[in-house]
Amino acid sequence: MALPLRDDAPTRQVPWMTLTLLVVNVLVFLFLQPSALQGGGSTDRDSLASSDIAEVEDFSFQWGVVPCEIQNGKALSEGIECSGERSGNPPDEPKMVFLSLLTYMFIHGSLLHLAGNMLFLWVFGGAVEDRLGPIPYLLLYVATGLLAVLAHVAIYWNDAIPVLGASGAIAGIMGAKQTPALIPLFH
């Protein structure tokens, strides 16, 4: 796989919203996410201590999107049953289920996950923000992130595996970069 290093489209102004999204994602990763996720590579269960596994699972279930929860409108802690695939043990803490449709876009599973997402956001985001402006760009980011996770929920509707990361939102930004005809929808 080739990694993009730059975009050929020149921008006329500083992409402040792209920079803000980058900073927010990095700050959430560094200061709010469990320290076990901040290692370099994957967070393979075999490489984590049992206390770290519990902390990572609790965090992922609390702030990530769990398709079964969205489908039922209730948290796993409220006793709903999911017959699909399951990952770990959800915490017993209350959860604002629909808030996770926003928070999942700002948490990442590892340093590599964060770095890859932020690289693609930086390379492609500035040109799209330049064409749209900062607020419509932010709306596009959130809307495509929502569409991506709702598509995932529709396919895996009864699974209890948390979804996290900005990949869906960034894929939407990349799509807007390659499909300028869609840009007027967000003006």
Any key phrases for this structure?
globular; mainly alpha; 187 residues; 7 helices
Structural summary, described in words:
The protein contains seven helices and no strands. The chain is globular. The protein has helices at residues 16-31, 50-63, 67-72, 100-103, 111-132, 134-155, 167-178. It is an all-alpha fold.
Topology (elements, then pairings):
Layout (H helix, E strand, L loop, with lengths): L15 H16 L18 H14 L3 H6 L27 H4 L7 H22 L1 H22 L11 H12 L9
Percent strand equals under 5%
Q: Count of DSSP E strands?
A: 0
Shape: globular
Which sequence of SSEs, written as H and E, runs from N to C?
Answer: HHHHHHH
Brief overview:
Helix 5 (111-132) runs parallel beside helix 7 (167-178).
